[in-house]
Amino acid sequence: MAKLNFGGVEENVVTRDEFPLEKARQTLKNETIAVLGYGVQGPGQALNLRDNGFKVIVGQRKNSKTWEKALKDGWVEGETLFSIEEACERGTILQFLLSDAGQISIWPTVKSYLSEGKTLYFSHGFGITYKEKTGIIPPDNVDVILVAPKGSGTSLRRMFQQGKGLNSSFAVFKDATGKARDKAVALGIGVGSGYLFETTFQKEVFSDLTGERGTLMGALAGILEAQYNILRKKGHSPSESFNETVEELTESLILLVAENGMDWMYANCSTTAQRGALDWRHKFRKAVEPVFEELYESVATGKEAQRSIDTNSQPDYREKLEEELKELRDSEMWQAGAQVRKLRPQNN
Ligand SMILES: NC(=O)c1ccc[n+]([C@@H]2O[C@H](COP(=O)([O-])OP(=O)(O)OC[C@H]3O[C@@H](n4cnc5c(N)ncnc54)[C@H](OP(=O)(O)O)[C@@H]3O)[C@@H](O)[C@H]2O)c1
Fold first, then answer.
1. How far apart are CA 198 and CA 13, in angstroms?
2. For residues 144 and 118, is the Cβ–Cβ distance under 8 A?
3. Distance between the two ends of the chain, CA-based, in angstroms?
């Protein structure tokens, strides 16, 4: 662990310097890692672990497009690709990477394979934190750990291939063997994380649900729509409204923020833009703070979890989701976006 200063607050974090890949391989040398589920996180983690030299198998239900995807990625039936049951039997570390709703329905099966000394691994605190709703209550004689990459499994894989790494949090819920923490860190390094910061299952799920409903996805879409709609109402063209709302953000400004922070992005804009942004940021913060309070409360009371469980376990969940995504895609703003993307010189 390294004690590092984050804006004046000291935190214990793990980097590849303290816990190199070789140490991770040593820590897990007798383990068979069974990645259960091959949706978005499954492929990212399984492929990175495999390429980093760990013993990995995949567990996926057959007669599914996802099974075909696993075959295409080079997993071999009967050698490295198995049914969920067989992977649970063969694995010593079971990486529970089904969708959160899928985890609830398959839990009785997975539980029956959790013999003493095995490890149950999550990439989300959801199942354990909301155990009254999910029924996921592991036996006492297994390690229960978490590594949660802070980004999509697709990015985890792409960044690994580019020699980069997504940051991840890690947590120990139950340390039955005395080695749970080392295993969590080793797996965090093995899946290709940037640096690892420690959390609890509860803190992970509270911050994660807040973040995705908030700035990362929900608030982001909402604020973009609000600005676009106002510009359109005031007579601006779709092209002008989209460029001033989305394209300039995603193609230019946010990349400068990622590189060197908000002040640096401001410093690289016009003085007129700087003055306005510095003044208006306070007004926007004050306007949305109450919404974030409401959101966090809704997460902490389990209301958000209940809503996810109720909707995502419906048999027609995917069709309904597709309808909602279609509505978003077909809206004028995002149709304008599709046209703008086509016109990017690199796409011509
Ligand atoms: N998405 C991300 O990038 C991301 C980021 C950080 C953390 N996480 C966490 O990682 C975990 C996995 O998330 P994910 O987004 O990768 O999940 P996902 O893509 O929705 O997972 C789909 C996988 O679950 C299987 N599955 C779903 N329901 C099933 C059932 N009833 N029986 C058997 N298999 C079932 C699917 O098989 P079929 O295709 O056959 O249905 C597929 O293999 C979650 O805990 C999530 O919160 C995800």
1. 7
2. no
3. 48
Position 218, amino acid: G
Residue closest via CA to ligand 1's atom 12 equals: 97
H or E element, residue 307? helix 303-312
Q: What is the pLDDT of residues 98-152, one digit of tens each?
A: 998 899 999 999 999 999 999 999 999 999 999 999 999 999 999 999 999 999 9
Strands 119-122 and 143-149: parallel
Taking the model in full, what pTM does it have? Answer: 0.94
Mean pLDDT of 65-90: 98
Strand 193-198: give its sheet, edge to edge: 2-6, 9-14, 193-198, 166-174, 143-149, 119-122, 93-96, 33-36, 56-59, 81-82
CA 100 – ligand 1 centroid, Å: 7
Contact predicate 6/18, CB 8 Å? no
Residue with tokens 């039997």: 89
Report which protein residue has its CA nearest ligand 1's atom 42. 39
**CB distance 59 to ligand 1 below 6 Å:** no
Strands (E), the chain: 2-6, 9-14, 33-36, 56-59, 81-82, 93-96, 119-122, 143-149, 166-174, 193-198
Hey, what amino acid is at 208? D
Annotated catalytic residue within 118, 124, 183, 232: 124
**Structure tokens that stand for 49 in this block:** 């672990």
Task: Verify whether ligand 1 is closer than 6 Å to residue 211 (CB atom).
Answer: no
Residue 90: CB atoms within 10 A of its CB come to 14
Nearest atom in ligand 1 to the alpha carbon of residue 42 is: 16
Q: Whose CA is nearest to atom 3 of ligand 1?
A: 152
Residue 118 identity: K
C-alpha span between 314 and 145 (Å, rounded): 28
Active site residue 236: no
Q: What single-letter DSSP state applies at residue 301?
A: T
